[in-house]
C-alpha cells in the first residue's frame, strides 16, 4: 500500500506538468479547432530559456520563469500571426504550418543551445518531507502549487474577463461570434499566446525534474497531447484530469515495466480511448459549420 501511494505521489508532480502542456493544446483547439503541432517545440524553448536565465544570467528561478513565459508568449503570437492568412483559405495548410514552425524551432534550439542537454538543479533546497511514512520532495509540492495556480488563473480569465468571454464565444460558434462583432483574430492570437506561455511554464518547471535537451519537448508534447485526448480534447477540466492520469499511469508503468514503460502507458491509453473515443469530458472545439 505504501509503495502504491509513493508511486502515485511521484506521478502526480509529473502529471501536473503534462496537464499544463495539455491545457495549451486544448486552449488553442477549443478556440480555433486547430491542433498546434509546434506546441512541444515551444515547451523545449521554454525549458531552455528558463534554464539559461536561471543558470547563466543568475536570475532567481521565479524571475527566470516569468521572462521565459513572456518570450514564448511572443513566439506564440508570431506563430498565430504568420498562420492567420491561411485560416480562411485552407485550414489544412494552417495545420501543416504548425508542423513547419516546429521544425524551425527545433533547428533554432540546436543552433542556439547545441545538441547536448543540461541538468538544472532544484531551486528549492531542503530534505524531502516525511508524511505518514511517505517521502515527498519539496520541489514536487512547488510544481503542484504553481500548476494549480496557473489552472485557476486560466479558468478565471476565461470565465471572469471580457476577453476570456470573447474567447468562450468564439469557441462555441465561430460564425456567430464574428456576426456580433467579436474580433476572432485577436481571440485566436490570445489563445496561441496563452498556450505558448503554458508550454513555457511546463518546460521551466520540468527542468529540475528531468534533463533539459532538444528532445524534451517531443516527449512532453506527446504525453501532453495524449492527456488532452484522454480528458476530452478542448476541455479545460479534461486536460487537468488527463495530465494527472497520464502522470500516475506513467509512474506505475515505470515501476513495474521498467524497459517497456512507454509502451505500457500508451497501450492503456489506447484501450481507454477505444472505450471512450471523445475522452472523459468529451471533445470541445469551435463550431465551423
UniProtKB/TrEMBL annotation:
Protein name: Branched-chain amino acid ABC transporter permease
A GO term for molecular function: transmembrane transporter activity
Gene Ontology cellular component list: plasma membrane
PANTHER family named among the record's database cross-references: AMINO ACID ABC TRANSPORTER PERMEASE PROTEIN, BRANCHED-CHAIN AMINO ACID TRANSPORT SYSTEM PERMEASE PROTEIN LIVH
Predominant location category: membrane
Record carries keyword Transmembrane helix: yes
Superkingdom, natural source: Bacteria
Bilayer topology annotation: Multi-pass membrane protein
Subcellular location: Cell membrane
Family classification: Belongs to the binding-protein-dependent transport system permease family. LivHM subfamily.
Regions crossing the membrane: 6-27, 34-55, 61-79, 91-116, 136-158, 190-212, 224-248, 260-279
A GO biological process held by the record: amino acid transport
UniProt entry keywords in alphabetical sequence: Amino-acid transport, Cell membrane, Membrane, Transmembrane, Transmembrane helix, Transport
Record-linked InterPro entries: ABC_transp_permease, BCAA_transport_permease
Amino acid at each position: 500500500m505504501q509503495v502504491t501511494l509513493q508511486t502515485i505521489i511521484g506521478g502526480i508532480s509529473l502529471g501536473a506538468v503534462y496537464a499544463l502542456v495539455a491545457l495549451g493544446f486544448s486552449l488553442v483547439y477549443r478556440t480555433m479547432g486547430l491542433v498546434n503541432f509546434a506546441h512541444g517545440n515551444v515547451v523545449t524553448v521554454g525549458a531552455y530559456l528558463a534554464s539559461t536565465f536561471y543558470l547563466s544570467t543568475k536570475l532567481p528561478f521565479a524571475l527566470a520563469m516569468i521572462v521565459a513565459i513572456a518570450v514564448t508568449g511572443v513566439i506564440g503570437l508570431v506563430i498565430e500571426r504568420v498562420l492567420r492568412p491561411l485560416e480562411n483559405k485552407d485550414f489544412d495548410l494552417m495545420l501543416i504550418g504548425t508542423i513547419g514552425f516546429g521544425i524551425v524551432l527545433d533547428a533554432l534550439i540546436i543552433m542556439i543551445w547545441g545538441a547536448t542537454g543540461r541538468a538544472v538543479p532544484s531551486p528549492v533546497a531542503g530534505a524531502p518531507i516525511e508524511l505518514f511514512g511517505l517521502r515527498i520532495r519539496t520541489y514536487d509540492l512547488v510544481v503542484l502549487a504553481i500548476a494549480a495556480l496557473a489552472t485557476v488563473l486560466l479558468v478565471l480569465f476565461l470565465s471572469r474577463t471580457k476577453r476570456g468571454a470573447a474567447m468562450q464565444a468564439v469557441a462555441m460558434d465561430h460564425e456567430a461570434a464574428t456576426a456580433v462583432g467579436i474580433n476572432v483574430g485577436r481571440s485566436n492570437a490570445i489563445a496561441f499566446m496563452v498556450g505558448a506561455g503554458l508550454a513555457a511554464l511546463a518546460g521551466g518547471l520540468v527542468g529540475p525534474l528531468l534533463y533539459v535537451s532538444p528532445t524534451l519537448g517531443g516527449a512532453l508534447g506527446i504525453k501532453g497531447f495524449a492527456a488532452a485526448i484522454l480528458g476530452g480534447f478542448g476541455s479545460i477540466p479534461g486536460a487537468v484530469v488527463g495530465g494527472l492520469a497520464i502522470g500516475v499511469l506513467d509512474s506505475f508503468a515505470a515501476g513495474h515495466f521498467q524497459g517497456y514503460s512507454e509502451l505500457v502507458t500508451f497501450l492503456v491509453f489506447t484501450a481507454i480511448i477505444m472505450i471512450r473515443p471523445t475522452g472523459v469530458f468529451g471533445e470541445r472545439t469551435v463550431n465551423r459549420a
